[in-house]
Amino acid sequence: MDTTFDLKKPIAIGSDHAGFEYKDATVKWLKEQGLEVKDLGPSSAASVDYPDFAHAVSAAVESGKVAFGILYCGSANGVAITANKHQGVRAGLAWDSDVAKLIRLHNNANIICLPARFIALPLALELVQIFMQTAFEGGRHATRVGKIACQ
């Protein structure tokens, strides 16, 4: 099981209308760091259905063509629920730095879901940074993560 992200691969990102501004700001911020980003939409703040974009990011993560995924919506619950329907996805909802670290460290999450209506943009970017830089601890957690999939 991989413990860190391969940042030579692009990062997939998507949102709904509530997370659109944060998504665009995160894309810009990641590109400023020299990272490749696959923006899977939406392309405006017009009302959209979050599952369409959560499925697109999740499929990209599941395929292994991207390093990891980032999803924004109002509460982040809708995108997290949708993303976790994909067998190869472990999407974690993060609202503070400890949670962003633990979803990687203990759960080996490969998508971070962020609640745009409940956290400020600087915090969202900090949480993405923590998520990217935290490696999966493995050990006893690997056994638990191995029991997640319904196969």
From TrEMBL:
It holds the Pfam family LacAB_rpiB. One of its GO terms (molecular function) is ribose-5-phosphate isomerase activity. It comes from the Bacteria. D-ribulose 5-phosphate binds at D16, H17, G74, S75, A76, N77, G78, N107, R117, R140, R144. Its EC number is 5.3.1.6. It is an enzyme of class 5 (isomerase). InterPro entries: RpiB, RpiB_LacA_LacB, RpiB_LacA_LacB_sf. Keywords: Isomerase. The active site is at C73 (proton acceptor), H106 (proton donor). One of its GO terms (biological process) is D-allose catabolic process. Belongs to the LacAB/RpiB family. This is Ribose 5-phosphate isomerase B. The gene is rpiB.
